[in-house]
Design a protein that fits this description.
The chain is α/β, with parallel strands linked by helices and 253 residues long. The protein has 7 helices and 11 strands. The protein binds iron/sulfur cluster (2 copies). The site of one iron/sulfur cluster has 9 residues, from loops.
């Protein structure tokens, strides 16, 4: 592998039509600014034998059950917008640059350890990757950009530290529907005021073991008959449609 050179050209492409992953604190700030936040949920069987990427996700999920199957549920907070980000200025600069979410600081690098950066899968224009740009990734895969590296470390740590908060949030919102990991997401659209309230409560309750409540019996949703058959054969509960006015299904492919 050769190294990668990169410098952001401020083209603004990565600031359009996004679901921007947020930490709990970032989601609270985003809602405070009047932005929209959605709650995405996926789950998988709780297995011991995991690839590094699945192990990374698994460490950021909480244990639960669906029927007779032990599962792990991951709750992901995203800022959702069609078109330009509400914080994007007309000259393509970020209007909240000093307070922008870590995901914005990290792009186009990868947050998941071991996931290779592929420039042809990124939105950045060719000139951003020109050999005359500063070194970004060393030949042995080390990130050379300190700002990006710092944001990755912070985002990985937040993902681990927030597992209890996300579980408390799921409980507070009455969440018990998840898509199958790697197939899609159950997208929970909660009114902003309620979500802000529940996020604040989740931060408090995650640090209070007396507030720990039993996990509900989770339900997988999948539009694919073959997936439904696999899930039910594993002893879990599955339906083809969420049939819930706050839940939509977002396929990954
Ligand atoms: S917060 Fe700033 S950097 Fe992030 S998507 Fe919006 S405009 Fe772009
Ligand atoms: S797409 Fe790439 S070059 Fe364009 S603003 Fe985003 S990070 Fe910078």
């Amino acid at each position: 592998m050769t190294g990668i050179n990169f410098s952001c050209t401020s083209c603004g492409r990565c600031c359009h039509d996004l679901r921007l992953t947020l930490s709990v604190a970032e989601a609270i700030q985003w809602l405070h600014r009047g932005g929209e936040v959605q709650v995405l949920c996926h789950a998988a069987a709780d297995l011991d034998d995991l690839s590094p990427v699945v192990a990374y996700r698994s460490a950021r999920s909480f244990p639960a059950r669906s029927g007779g199957l032990a599962i792990r549920v991951q709750v992901i907070l995203t800022a959702q917008f069609d078109g330009a980000c509400p914080n994007l200025l007309p000259d393509m600069r970020c209007g909240i640059y000093g307070a922008r979410p870590n995901t914005c600081r990290i792009y186009p690098a990868e947050i998941i350890p071991g996931l290779a950066l592929k420039s042809d899968r990124k939105l950045c224009p060719p000139e951003a990757w020109d050999d005359r740009q500063p070194g970004y990734l060393s030949a042995d895969g080390r990130l050379l950009d300190v700002v990006t590296d710092t944001a990755i470390v912070a985002a990985r740590a937040a993902g681990l530290a927030e597992v209890g908060m996300r579980r408390a949030l799921a409980t507070a919102l009455g969440m018990k529907i998840a898509a199958l990991e790697n197939e899609g997401f159950a997208v929970w659209s909660i009114p902003s005021d309620s979500l802000l309230h529940s996020l604040r409560d989740a931060v408090q309750e995650a640090h209070d073991p007396s507030k720990d409540t039993p996990s509900p019996d989770w339900l997988f949703v999948s539009p694919r008959p073959e997936t439904l058959a696999l899930i039910t054969a594993a002893g879990a509960n599955a339906v083809s449609s969420a049939n819930h006015d706050q839940v939509a299904y977002l396929p990954l492919y």
